[in-house]
Amino acid sequence: MGVSITHVILTGGVGSRLWPLSRKSQPKQYLEIFEGKSLFEMTVERNSHLADKVMVVGNIDNHHLSGRVMDKSKTSYINIVEATPRNTAAAIAFAAFASNPEEILIVTPSDHIIDMMENYNKAIDEAVSKAQEGFIVTFGVIPTKPETGYGYIESKGDVVISFREKPNETTAKEFISKGNFLWNSGMFCFKAGVLLDELKQFQPDVYEKSKAVWESSKEGFLDLNLSLEIPSISIDYAVMERSKKIKVVPAAFSWSDLGSFESVYDYLVSKGHTVDKNGNMVIGCEKHTVFLGLKNTIFVYTDTANLILQKENSQDVKDIYSELEKRNSDLLN
Predict the structure, then answer these.
(1) CA separation for the pair 118, 132 (Å, rounded)
(2) Global pTM?
(3) Residue 3: what pLDDT?
(4) Which of 120, 131, 216, 273 has the most CB atoms less than 10 A away?
(5) CB 184 within 8 A of CB 153
(6) 113, 39 contact by CB (below 8 A)
(7) CA distance 145 to 313
(8) What is the percent of the chain where pLDDT is above 90?
(9) Residue 36 neighbours by CB under 8 Å, 6+ apart
C-alpha cells in the first residue's frame, strides 16, 4: 500500500486586483475566461492524477461555486467551509486536522496558471519524497523576469536561506542577477502531522484555536464565533520562516498567480487572444472596439462596470477596490 496523498485546494482569495472581472460573488478563480474553463477547474484537473483524495478549503460566500466546479469535473471531495477568512495558517491547519497525521498533503491555491506539466509533475514527485522524510516542502519557481508582484525564496540547492517580501524594482533586479532567488509560489507539500507539530511549536494560539474550531465543525462547516478567535496570519509567517524542517524544490514549470491584469494580459496573449498593433486588448466583450492613439491599454468590460487601464498600472487596481470598499459599493458584489 503506497502513501496516501491528498490535494488541498485553497479557494479563499477575492482577486481585488482583477476588479471588475473579479467580484465577491464571482472571484477570479471561478471566471470561465481561460479557454472556457476556470482557474479552479484547471487546478483540479492538473492534480487529479497526482492525488488519491481532494479537499477544498473554501468560505461560506463561495463554497457553492466550488461545489459547482467539483460536480462539473465529477470529483468527490472533502469540503471544509470557513465561516470567515482567517488567512492561510488557519486554512492549512484545518486541512491537516481533517487528515491522518501520516497523510501527505499537496496544498495549492485555486487561482494559479501552470504550464509545462512535465516539469510540474517532476517537482511534485520530488516534493512528495522529501515530505515522506518529514520535511515541509515549498515550491520555488525559477524566475523569468524581475517580478515585483511575488515574494522570493533565497535558496541553495533545496536549502532555504531566507524568505523575502515582494521587492521593489531595483531589489527584484538584484535578486535575479544573483541567480539563487526563486518566486515563492504559495504551494506546499508535507505530512499533515509534521505541519501541525511545527504550527503547535511556533504558533500555539493558531494551533489550539484552529483545533477547537475543527472539533466543533458540522459536516465541514466551521463556527463563526470560534473562528473569529483565530489570529489571522499567513503560513509563511507562522511556520515557513521559522521552522528548521523546510526544504525548497526549485521548479522550472511556467507559473503565474494571475494577480494583476498585466499577468492576465501576458497569459491571454500567449494563448492567442487578439491585441491590436499597439498592444491594446479588450477583455470580457465581443463588441467591435477601436483604440485610437493608445498603447498597451486594457479595456475590461462587465455588465455593471468598465475599467480602462494602462497595462503598467495594473497593480493599482487594488486601490480602486479599496476605495469602493470604503463606500460599501454594490459594484464589489
Answers:
(1) 21
(2) 0.90
(3) 82
(4) 131
(5) yes
(6) yes
(7) 18
(8) 71
(9) none
